[in-house]
Every structure is written in structure tokens, then in C-alpha cells.
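Repro:
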Amino acid sequence: MSLFYSMMTRQLRQSAAYLGVEAFPGYCYVVLFPDETVKIGYSNTKETLKRRFRDLKREADKEGPGFEVLAVMAGGCALEAVLHHRFHKSRILGKGERFIFSDEIQDFLATAPRLSLDL
């Protein structure tokens, strides 16, 4: 992880703690892949979110059936930074923003405030 990225995500996490993640535009999502890993990412608009889900599904279909959107939440890149930091121990090195579907992530998702979007 680059120093610049580390500094940016720290600033986002601090701002999110102060303002609340809902103050940030966009959507943060958690999706499950067929290999039982999850990706935590964000999109700025509904249109980019739809496009992102299509791309991720196409990527997942190469691994087999089982792609699932687990959550879409308010907070965009700020919530993404918070969650990446929170679940850093579950991150899979060399797999981008993919994480082991750990008990900690499952517990978070059990109570996470989800948005209801028509996509």
C-alpha cells in the first residue's frame, strides 16, 4: 500500500468519524464471490453502481455461480475506507479489495444499515 493511499484513507476515516459516513456521497457495497471471498468497494452514482455490479458479476461468473450483493450502504469512499481498515486482517493479499468472508464481516453485515435501491 502506498504512503499516499494510506494518508488518504486515514483522512477519509477521520472525516467519517467526525461527520458520519452518511455525509459522504455515493454508495459502498459488499459483494460475495463464488470462492466465498467478499469485495468491499464504492461507486459515486447509481449508474456507476449498476455498471460495477455487471462487471463484477461477469468476473465472478468465470469462477462459477454464486455472485451475490450482500449490502449497499450510504457513505461512498469514506465508508469503504472505514471498512477496509476495520477488516484489514481479513484482506487477501494480491486479490485487490477482496477479503475472507470472516465472522467479523458477517457480524457487521447482520446489522449494517442497507439502502433499498432499484438497480
